[in-house]
Amino acid sequence: MTLLRTLDISYAPLMDYGEAWDLQKKIVTKIDLGEQQDNLLLLQHPPTYTMGVQNHPEHLLLSKEQLKERGISLFEIDRGGDITYHGPGQLVGYPLIFIDGQMNLDLHGYLRDLEQVIINYLANHGIEGTRKPEYTGVWVGDRKICAIGVKFNRCRHRRGFVTSHGFAFNVLSGIQNEGFQGIIPCGIQDFGVTSLEDCTSKKFNMRDVAEEIIPLFTTLFNYDVPILDGMREAR
């Protein structure tokens, strides 16, 4: 019988990317020290580009002046992958999870599990989410609806890793017409992006989407199912 673990869940309607990145690093350190249990941060960011460790500068199509004019921040960060966009209307999830050898979970297995959470969510709304073997993330047809990029942080005080970064799920209509036009998302030129609202022709509330994703996440990763209205505000 698999023992269920506990998970702290925090939600923020909008949080600056730099603030969220600092918060991730702080929580990762506390989890490594055994001072805090696993955490899931759910939030939205102001318009932001992030460039992962496999980035190609030419995939950013805007100059520094154009970024400033459009109010888009740029961060070079330590997750895997290339360049992507975060902005209002996109639900970002940062699972900060301790993984040891007993979990039988490697980086690729963890990525597939994150994809499955979103695939299961889409299925609940009558949408077929799929994978493309050559790319990470979740797709609806030939359009990407969820980007995924993570980091395994090696623990210093116990054997194992703590995950950081995570998924970016396009929810509200029109997000693909915003910041995605200033980049080649994840370096993929052959396919576009889409959103939950565009796939369903329905309107969604961001906090409701967050609450619907939580039980899917906790079930797949063997956590106790939390009380949904108990989500704390991230800070």
In summary, what is this structure?
With about 240 residues, the chain is α/β, with parallel strands linked by helices.
Descriptive report:
This protein is an alpha/beta fold. The chain has five helices and twelve strands. Helix 3 packs across helix 5 (206-220). It is globular, with a radius of gyration of 17 Å.
Q: Which descriptor suits the 3D outline?
A: globular
Poorly predicted regions: 227-231
Average pLDDT, rounded to a whole number, is: 89
Helical content stands at 25-40%
Q: How large a portion of the residues is in β-strands, by DSSP E?
A: 25-35%
Pairing-aware structural class of the strands and helices? alpha/beta
Radius of gyration equals 17 Å
The count of β-strands is 12
Largest sheet: 9 strands, mixed
Instruction: Please provide the ordered H/E string of secondary-structure elements.
Output: EHEEHEEEEHEEEEHHE
Number of helices: 5
Give the distance, in angstroms, between the N- and C-terminal Cα atoms.
Answer: 35 Å
